[in-house]
Amino acid sequence: MNYSKEAKDLEFAYKVRRALNESAESLPTPTLDRLAQARKLALTRKKQEAPVTVQVLKGAFAGNSGFSFQGPGSWMGKLGLALPLLVLVVGLLGIYEYEQQQNINELADIDTAVLVDELPPAAYVDTGFSAYLNKTEE
Fold first, then answer.
1. Listed ranges 28-37, 52-61, 118-127; the one with the highest mean pLDDT
2. DSSP states along the chain
3. Model pLDDT for residues 89-135, shown as the tens digit of each residue
């Protein structure tokens, strides 16, 4: 919903309210009395607001679970924060090294295939070589 649609809806609501207020002034007295009685009846049937209780544990926000080793700032508490971060960094470094090794192995396989092939390496950089290959395949 865009701004102009919201503005038009709000303007329409104000016009309806104004029209209802103007027409309410011209209602006969018995109708006004019945409306007042209906409003009182609706208010008596309205549910009473019950107080809502919420239990919040001290320190439940900001990442504090309430569990600590020998108070805040202890070496065990600091280790509990640093150890997962250290494991994450070591894991990411391991993944990086594994991917690098895989890349090196793939390049070595390509180099081996080029060197073992009957063609000299200069043939692969020759522009007419691809035309020759396409001609022999047909």
1. 28-37
2. --HHHHHHHHHHHHHHHHHHHHHHTTS-HHHHHHHHHHHHHHHHHSPPPPPP-----TT-STT--S--SSSTT-HHHHHHHHHHHHHHHHHHHHHHHHHHHHHHHHHHHHHHHHHHSSS-THHHH-HHHHHHHHHHH-
3. 999 999 999 999 999 999 999 888 888 888 777 777 777 877 777 77
